[in-house]
Amino acid sequence: MSKPYTGGCACGAIHYEISAEPIAMNDCQCRDCQATSGTGHGSYLTFPSRQAVKLDGQATHWDMVADSGNVKTRGFCPACGAPVYLTFSAMPDLFTIHAASLDDPTRYQPQMVTYTVRGLAWDRVDPAVPKFETMPPM
């Protein structure tokens, strides 16, 4: 394994260290990710186990129902408002972080684009990255 993935919120009140490799890195163009990011998509790294995550600080949580019907929980900083991570009721072991929350965001390398069916014409993602209209089969 490479060095741990570290990062957190904009003000430093929340910090994480993840001692695992991500199982997926994706740009998501669903409407929820557009609204949360304030742009055309959200960029995420998903890790296979919460046990590999050391999380310091207290996030505020917001639950929403995803297109799948499952609950998606967003963790963000109550002080600066920066989005930091997501968890999923249907896949409780997974831990997903926002790429921009990384201390070294150059470690993010998108492997796919999801929910292109909701993509906006002005949001131009890398044409070389595989695209899926919704979520690809797991």
From TrEMBL:
Keyword DNA-binding: no
Transmembrane segments: none
GO MF, any single term: carbon-sulfur lyase activity
Species for this entry: Rhizobium leguminosarum
Similarity field: Belongs to the Gfa family.
UniProt keywords, alphabetically: Lyase, Metal-binding, Zinc
Protein name per Swiss-Prot or TrEMBL: Glutathione-dependent formaldehyde-activating enzyme family protein
Domain of life the protein comes from: Bacteria
Keyword Thylakoid annotated: no
Residue ranges of every copy of the CENP-V/GFA domain listed in the record: 5-123
Lineage: Bacteria, Pseudomonadati, Pseudomonadota, Alphaproteobacteria, Hyphomicrobiales
